[in-house]
């Protein structure tokens, strides 16, 4: 069964000019400075650690709507919208309150091994690229399958550390939620098929949803390995969803390495997709509900806009009524883009 993926690629975007963000982080109760706080711009390689006085300084590109994320063990992760418009001189982090484990009425029938295999499959992805990726703190992720809803949920109190050896990134993912929806099936109807492995649920998820923020750092420091990673990123970029979003917003599909199909027929994007620039964002209208995009390696991706007209930035972030980029997706992916998962992430400040 092909995976239907509807969640944002949880990315920010860096635009035309940069400014410096400076701030100070304190404990909300004691008002004392907090050192060692990780401060980063969502979806980018831009990030720092607060000093002994709780101070930080980093570059931030104007008009991006990208979140400023502050994270420290023992405290609630803080995500700040439009940080360039706010006073950051006294940012307060709230200490986490220890909570008792939730008691569930329905017992979890799945083993830890089964849940890990499903999570890795859909979180990291199902392409060749995913084979070079590894979650190095898998044990810290809470996984639970709810038989009543047929949802396998993943939660983590600490950043999920994804090592992508092919692209040369260590991606630290702060997970808001990640849910894999399975279908309930008639055990009696399929008892012959599953006689050696009886189950009440589909073997593959049919719908995935989630939201997160991410920070990228270089995995390799040696010059030879770094150069190799840079070359691989350049080769992979035209196959990525980031490239698709940028090409779509720039109204440049015809001159790109992508080909657009509708109803199994190759079509010209100008006759099916209308792009209008709205400040730093793009208003995009689609003539039909489904299209197929084929890249230079003949990977096929089915795209389906949630609405006839969507408003997004160059990395696919939906724009809410308040003008802020949200974690809500505007396009549903099936095929190659869906199978990429987190293994296919590139920083939003990436330039080939």
Total number of domains: 3
Number of DSSP helices? Answer: 4
Categorize the overall geometry: globular
Uncertain residue segments: 1-17, 322-327
**Largest sheet descriptor:** 6 strands, antiparallel
Count of extended strands: 24
Beta content comes to: 25-35%
| Average of pLDDT | 85
Alpha-beta classification: mainly beta
What Rg is obtained from the alpha carbons, in whole angstroms?
A: 21 Å
Helix and strand sequence: EEEEEEEEHEEEEEEHHEEEEEEEEEEH
| Helix proportion | 10-25%
Strand order of the largest sheet: 1-24-20-19-15-16
How is the quaternary structure best described? single chain
Terminal Cα span: 34 Å
Account of the protein in words:
The protein is mainly beta and 352 residues long. The chain has 3 domains: 18-93, Carboxypeptidase-like, regulatory domain (Immunoglobulin-like, Sandwich), CATH 2.60.40; 112-218, no CATH class; 240-344, no CATH class. The protein has 4 helices and 24 strands. The chain has helices at residues 112-123, 223-236, 241-249, 336-340; strands at residues 4-5, 18-27, 38-41, 47-49, 55-61, 68-71, 78-80, 91-93, 133-135, 141-146, 151-156, 160-164, 169-181, 207-218, 259-262, 265-266, 273-278, 281-286, 291-294, 300-305, 309-312, 318-319, 325-326, 331-335. The strands form 6 sheets. Strands 1-24-20-19-15-16 form a 6-stranded antiparallel β-sheet. Strands 9, 10, 11, 12, 13 and 14 form a 6-stranded antiparallel β-sheet that branches. The chain has a 4-stranded antiparallel β-sheet with strand order 4-3-6-7, with no helix packed on it. Strand 22 (318-319) and strand 23 form a beta hairpin. Residues 1-17 and 322-327 have low confidence and may be disordered.
């Amino acid at each position: 069964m092909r995976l239907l993926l509807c969640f944002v690629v949880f990315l920010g975007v860096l635009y035309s000019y940069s400014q410096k963000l400076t701030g100070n982080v304190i404990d909300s109760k004691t008002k004392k400075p907090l050192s060692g706080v990780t401060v980063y711009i969502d979806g980018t390689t831009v990030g720092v650690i607060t000093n002994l006085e709780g101070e930080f300084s980093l570059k931030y590109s104007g008009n991006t709507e990208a979140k400023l994320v502050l994270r420290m063990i023992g405290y609630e992760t803080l995500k700040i919208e439009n940080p360039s418009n706010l006073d950051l001189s006294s940012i307060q982090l709230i200490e986490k309150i220890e909570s008792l484990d939730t008691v569930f009425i329905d017992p979890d029938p799945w083993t830890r091994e089964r849940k890990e295999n499903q999570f890795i499959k859909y979180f990291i992805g199902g392409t060749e690229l995913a084979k070079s990726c590894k979650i190095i703190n898998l044990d810290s992720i809470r996984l639970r399958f709810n038989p009543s809803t047929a949802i396998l949920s993943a939660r983590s109190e600490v950043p999920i550390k994804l090592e992508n050896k092919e692209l040369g990134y260590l991606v630290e993912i702060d997970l808001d939620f990640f849910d894999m929806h399975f279908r309930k099936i008639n055990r009696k109807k399929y008892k012959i098929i599953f006689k050696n492995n009886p189950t009440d649920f589909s073997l593959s998820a049919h719908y995935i949803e989630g939201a997160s923020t991410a920070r990228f750092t270089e995995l390799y420091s040696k010059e030879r390995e770094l150069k190799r990673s840079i070359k691989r990123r350049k080769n992979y970029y035209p196959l990525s969803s980031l490239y698709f979003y940028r090409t779509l917003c720039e109204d440049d599909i015809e001159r790109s390495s992508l080909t657009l199909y509708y109803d199994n027929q190759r079509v010209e994007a100008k006759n099916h997709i209308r792009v209008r620039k709205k400040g730093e964002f793009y208003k995009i209208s689609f003539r039909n509900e489904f299209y197929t995009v084929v890249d230079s390696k003949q990977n096929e991706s089915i795209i389906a806009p949630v609405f006839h007209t969507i408003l997004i930035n160059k990395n696919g972030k939906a724009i809410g009524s308040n003008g802020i980029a949200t974690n809500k997706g505007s396009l549903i992916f099936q095929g190659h883009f869906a199978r990429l998962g987190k293994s296919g992430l590139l920083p939003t400040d990436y330039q080939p």
